[in-house]
Specification:
Layout lengths: L2 H12 L11 E10 L23 E3 L5 E5 L6 H16 L6 E2 L23 H17 L9 E5 L3 H6 L11 H18 L1 H7 L4 E3 L11 E4 L2 E3 L28 H13 L3 H6 L2 E2 L2 E2 L17 E4 L8 H8 L3 E7 L11 H16 L7 H17 L6 E4 L2 E4 H20 L7 H13 L5 H11 L4 H17 L5 H23 L5 H11 L4
């Protein structure tokens, strides 16, 4: 255990400043495919009662028209986060008729790619940019991959925490530079240890047999509609999921916010020959925003990303450049198929303790070689995390996953102990102990439980997931929202539709000019 981590834990325990650890903000973004009662992908438009996916603050779509994304407002207490997520689910289920939400990260049986509907946001230039970007994703990666769903966990800490830690954070500016350096430090440690999250929370070891890319691994079969890897934890985060060849050269060894901006800006502006061959404009229509390695910053598929709220006509990199990093977005968490919300309170509590560990632990600068080692550890945990005796590498030395995980648990438990003593917070140590048990018994992991549940249902991924999705749908529909709450969300939907209409009415100029101007913004850092 590093002396720096020990001294920091002692500081929070002795100074009575442990409450600062709990003063940051948390939020969840939950994705879910809409399906028909029969279990096939819904090809209906986004329900009118849900409002405009372009301008609604909490209910939108991701890649496909059928891929809902529910966004909670930031809260200090994760209990409030999940209460808000529950309300959103109840409103959505009351608004989509007989449709269900598929409760797995890997999608339901998908129709031919030309049938999968790309999300539509209206006719304004802003809306068309989002739509064309998704056309580009389909061209680059295929529509199937874009129907994979997950959980994004947004996390920030109190500004006071960075002040307390400033003696060990590279960067002398205050507050933006100090805060940004602190979040980059967190991200370095996250990449060192995020394999643990995949082992603990990976819940997608199986998929439908018609999923694109099913020849990448030596899959096993249990039924005609189901493929699986016996010891995998998360196919979603594997080579058939969010791993893109065009992004392989973006080595994740960012040691400063300047490193990150420079690297991502280069990828956004660097021509990529395979995409150039496809072109960006065909038969009078845009098929992708550009032919560069990344169309936009958000195309960068990383397990964690730095974030800053953008202003009108501002790109994400510009926002970070101008105001620093505001929070981080953890993107590697699978949907928990055993939880109606897709994530449990226990999981969110562990994530909070884990991320605070990444903040408080010593975070030396990362080399290219270490970045490769981190990526390899992550891949091994994803593809074979439950293999008996599986080893990872720490500073080029082999170490059993279980041993390293238990070592990390000891440190994370110290933070959980501090959090349990903050105001009315509780349950953090219980959450850590529950994850510790998974390291001692792989059968307790959600990936193992999914395979066991599939076996109990005859091996059909489709039938098993459809049944679970129906159970969760019934859970939400049995608890309709109070009239006042339902009216509030109906009002939000109405306001979002009006906001979209105003954007379209105020639209001027040609879309080609808008794209050209938008792309030029990436150079104006």
């Amino acid at each position: 255990m590093s002396s720096l981590f020990t001294s920091r834990i002692r500081m929070f325990a002795e100074r009575g400043s442990r409450h600062i650890l709990a003063e940051g903000l948390r939020g969840v973004e939950r994705e879910a495919l809409r399906i028909c009662r029969e279990g096939v992908l819904a090809t209906t438009r986004h329900a009118k009662n849900l409002g405009s996916p372009l301008t609604h603050p909490y209910i939108t779509t991701d890649y496909s028209e059928a891929l809902l994304e529910l966004i909670t407002p930031p809260e200090r207490d994760v209990r409030n986060v999940l209460e808000n997520l529950d309300v959103l689910h109840r409103y959505v289920h009351a608004s989509i008729g007989t449709e269900l939400l598929w409760n797995q990260s890997m999608p339901c049986p998908l129709p031919p790619e030309d049938v999968i509907p790309i999300a539509w946001y209206g006719t304004s230039h802003t809306a068309m940019l989002k739509h064309v970007y998704r056309r580009g994703l389909a061209l680059r990666y295929g529509k199937s991959m874009q129907c994979i769903a997950g959980i994004h966990y947004n996390f920030s800490v109190s500004p006071s925490l960075w002040t307390l830690l400033k003696e060990a954070i590279t960067g002398t500016g205050f507050p933006d530079e100090l805060r940004s350096a602190g979040y980059i430090s967190l991200m370095r440690n996250f990449r060192r240890f995020s394999w643990l999250l995949m082992y603990l929370f990976g819940a997608s070891p199986a998929m439908c047999s018609n999923f694109a890319g099913n020849d990448v691994y030596p899959f096993h079969t249990m039924s005609t509609d189901r493929l699986y890897l016996p010891n995998a934890t998360s196919l979603r985060m594997s080579r058939i999921g969010y791993r893109a060849n065009a992004q392989a050269s973006i080595a994740e060894h960012f040691n400063s916010v300047e490193d990150y901006i420079e690297c991502i800006a280069a990828a956004v502006n660097e021509p990529y020959p395979p995409y150039a061959e496809q072109g960006a404009y065909h038969n009078g229509e845009w098929t992708q925003i550009n032919t560069n390695r990344l169309q936009l910053e958000n195309e960068y598929y990383s397990a964690i990303r730095p974030k800053q709220v953008t202003l009108p006509d501002e790109r994400p990199l510009q926002a970070i450049y101008r105001r620093g990093i505001q929070y981080v977005e953890v993107r590697c968490i699978d949907i928990d198929p055993f939880e109606p919300l897709g994530i449990s309170l226990e999981t969110t509590r562990f994530l909070e303790a884990f991320l605070l560990y990444c903040v408080l632990e010593e975070s030396p600068l990362t080399s290219y070689d270490e970045a490769c080692e981190n990526a390899e550890n992550f891949s091994r945990a994803v593809e074979m995390g439950r293999s008996p005796g599986l080893t990872l590498h720490r500073q080029r030395k082999a170490i059993p996953l279980r041993d390293w995980g238990l070592h990390l648990m000891e440190k994370i438990a110290e933070i959980a102990n501090l959090l349990d003593g903050c105001d009315d917070k509780e349950g953090y140590m219980t959450a850590v102990l529950a994850q510790q048990r998974k390291l001692n018994d792989t059968e307790l992991t959600p990936s193992a439980r999914v395979l066991k549940g599939l076996q109990a249902k005859g091996g059909s991924f489709f039938r098993y997931t459809l049944e679970q999705s129906a159970i969760h749908t019934a859970y939400f529909r049995a608890r309709p929202l109070p009239d006042v709450t339902a009216a509030h969300y109906a009002s939000l939907a109405h306001l979002s539709v009006n906001a979209q209409a105003k954007l379209e009415e105020a639209q001027t100029g040609e879309f080609e000019q808008y794209i050209s101007r938008y792309q030029s913004l990436s150079l104006a850092l």
